[in-house]
Sequence to fold (1141 residues):
Amino acid sequence: MDIHINGKKYKAVQGETILEVAVKNGIKIPTLCYHSDLCLAGNCRICVVDVDGAKTLQASCTAMASNGMKIWTNTPKVIKARKMNIQLLLGSHFGECYTCPRNSNCELLKLAEEHGIEELPFPKKSKRTRELEITPSLTRDPDKCIMCGRCVRTCEELQGVHAVKPIGRSNDVRIETFFGQGLMHTSCTMCGQCINRCPTGALYETSCIQPVWDALADPDKYVVVQTAPAVRAALGEEFGMEPGTRVTGKMVAALRKLGFNKIFDTQFTADLTIIEEGTEFLTRLKRTLVGKEKGLLPMTTSCSPGWVKYIEHFYPDLLTHVSTCKSPQQMFGPLAKTYFAEKEGINPSKMLTVSIMPCVAKKYEADRPEMNASGYKDVDYVLTTRELAKMMKTAGLDLKDMPVEEYDNPFGISTGAAVIFGATGGVMEAALRTVYEIVTGREVPFKNLDITPVRGMEDVKEAEITIEGVTAEYKFLEGAKVRVAVAHSLGAAKKVMDKVKSGEADYHFIEIMACPGGCLGGGGQPIPTSPEIRKARARAIYEEDESMAIRKSHDNPAIKKLYEDFLEKPNSHKAHELLHTHYLKRKRFDKVK
Amino acid sequence: MPAAGFILEKIKQGEALKKAFEINRAEITDIIKDSGLKGRGGAGFPTGLKMYLCGAAADTVKYVVCNADEGEPGTFKDRVILETIPEKVFEGMTITAYVIGSREGIVYLRGEYAYLKSELENVLKEMRKNNMLGENILGKGFSFDIRIALGAGAYVCGEETALIESLEGKRGEAKNKPPFPVSSGLFGHPTLVSNVETFCNIPHIVDKGSLWFKNMGSGKSTGTKLISVSGDVKKPGVYEITFGMKVKDLLKLAGAEETKAVDIGGASGIIIPELQFEREISFEDIPTGGSIIVFDKTRKMADIMENFMEFFLDESCGQCTPCREGTKYFVDAVEKIKNRKITEQDLKNLRDISDCMKITSKCGLGQASTNAFISILDNFKDELLS
Amino acid sequence: MTVLSKISKKEIINELDNILSGVSLDRGNLLCVLESLVGKFGYLNDTMAVEVGRRFSMDPNEVYSVASFYAFLPVKKSGKYKIRVCRTISCKLKNADGIVKAIEEEIGVKFGNTTKDMRFTLERANCLGMCDKAPAMLINDKVYTELTPEKAKEIIKSYKNK
Fold:
């Protein structure tokens, strides 16, 4: 069908919204409550357009295009109304932009600027009316909330967590937790996906920047830093680079300039995770197939702290299925403060470990009371990708100008299998590369080691690998069909776990990441996020994998040496002490009787 | 009850329904269309067209919903209908169901009227006993039943999409239209939502024909209208008028004296001064869902403004920007007006906000919520700003 | 209904079993179930939201969100008898403010508050649809019209021992 926008004719398909047709044809209509990851709300009334024959302006994000429709996107009437709605939002938004963590990419501020808002026709909210809610991972500033509902839709549709909801109505409507009990007492998983979709500074990570500056400035402290795989595929966006730009070496250089004593890679412990988790998986397989034990399979991954907290709240009876392996971040912490500290003769009490993560749940994870295997807090501070960018900017470091440098040894050596931890399906692919080879002595039978069935952005992916030609030790696996599933976003996790709970699923191994796209779409990553941006980051991750000399975790020489020197063997007693953990059955609402 | 007309009169139950069963469905739709009957809740959508659209929608499940969420300040005529002739409403719903092919009807009764529920249920029971509802009604092979659902204190649920959300057990937030309920309503099924009074008209039109109906009223406003009259009058109550009646004549009927202003249409309506009492109540001149509140010369217009704006501050659902954020400035403005602190610039700004609310609010509530303020401002400027 | 300052989980579960007997667990019945709970306990609390959520396979926070939208589904402690005096203009013209004042005197708390014994909560309500018999108020489901301050006091007195 044909529709007219601003006097020009365009083709439209039945079921397309006005906004979709406009975007397709390069016509920009400003939006606010709209987000490409979420269902339509049509609440903010910013994207209104004039449609011939309609008495009122139409929200282009929800209004369907129909044949012969004549649409005007920028008439004085439209602009005036749009401007007023922006002003109305500004009027109730407690803005002190100069102190706002989102002042460099606030969508409301941008709209105000684009619409030439110079003053408000009414007094502006000048006082705080609600308190900040501060958790280890995220901070909620209800005074900056403009009720677009994106966080609610994120938490509900994408994550199935329902931590926050609109409460009350009218001008008193607010986003709140269950009976106002707070995020820490309800089942917020701390994934931070709401942050990535909040248009203003109403949601942001709880910052650790200041203590890190203090640590770096303290001559008495030895500060080591680890960087997660997904950070290198996104940090560039904070410096104006295209999504999908790989910046590994430049990031390393910047960290060195910031003054960290050692620049290490979480990928090193990602490789270690594969060895530990792969071994655990084989043990579980044996105990199930040979020992006929129950409750061990399917085994799920445990690297995503949002996922871990989710299963603790939502499927507490299935916790035996979760791998006991700590996440790579939490494997790194105790190793740095024991193995590395001993090796280098550093007093671990003077050592601080900082991690750069695409995640805000990692902050919560680092704060879990059991995470002190080294005798100290294993990971002292967690910074998000965004926080690192901010520190660099404070220090006057532009990523674009950085030279390319290498990680330090020994925790700087990693493989392609570790890089792909950053993308959904990556842990599974890495694990299969190793497990298959342990069991059969041969490489996993996929071209160029690329296990494509577990890649991509489908919310639940499934694959099956038949194991043939096993070594003597793994005779019980001859001919076994190993079935795996990969889910990203907690909504997808729910789909899989409901099947596990009902017994319908016959998977052996499940990878679950709390965030869409995996860590590359994490709650600590640059804002904005969209399916396209996440695809671009994934592309960068897989390119990085291809570029690595070693692509299987068990081939990582530094890992081999770590076992020889320190851990003895996979799943050894020492490995269990330092690298494995336990989980907590949590209630959905711990304040409820 | 000082009413004259037919709406509030008892009829012989089932006569119209029997007649309807003898006519084919398309024909009934045509009769209703031809009668010119429009929705009596305030919006005035042609009922016959609604029937046609809902009837034409292809679905095996359809609903007939009676909107008894009478919340507009000053309106109580639906309460009186439900107190006196509920069976007529139910018969109207049944005929409608027969026409569009629905098996389930729901009366969405506002929470404030909860005390009516058990009596209404008794009536439904009685009708079932008489085979006027339930399986195989009057032996004609058509089955339909009605249940009562209670609202819980939310004016916005009078808006049909919000009402449907509420019936689905959700927050009563209006939805984006289209799709309209006639194609996708309750639980996604085609749903015909009409006002209590509208359903009351249907048995009469089916019984007496569209010509009879068209002969009443004026121009395109056919039939009669129940008007709830309250405020400064000697005889408050429900009046059935034929469309086209002048405001001043209605005032006389109700025993209004020394009248200064009349609110037509409640908080979302308009307030007119004496100069405009010659105007007519009709879809062409002043349309209304049926509320008339009369104010005598002792009343202060600013108080009325304040009351209405506070009403909207309470009742906005809060989801869309203009309605949620705009209303409070009008409440503040009344305060300023009362303190003689309002400026010309303030008034200009308020008009700008009002314009924006009118054309960008998601539903009728926000679109109409400044009507009272603006009309009082326009019509009583001297009193407010002197 | 009894005056409850503390409601036990057991009572809630029993009551819910009661309410739900013969009621299908379609979400369409949610409001009516919540209304019944309010009828019994006077308001909704977190435990009720969790229990209702469990029955309806809904997230408890969604139950809370829905309830909080409606004026008649209080999600904060509220008295056994909710006195709702119509604040809309027709009643206001007929001395609704005087009625409120009389009730405030009678129960000893101001508008918007609950008596210490959790018996009465005095609230405002928007148009009750009784404009022809103004001023009007609701006490729970019961409507009282053509009030005078004296009449209102008498009515409240009659609830003091109920």
Notes: Chain B touches chain A at residues 154, 171, 176, 178, 313-322, 324-329, 332, 349, 352-353, 355-356, 358-362, 367 (CB under 8 Å). The mean pLDDT of chain B is 95. The radius of gyration of chain B is 21 Å.
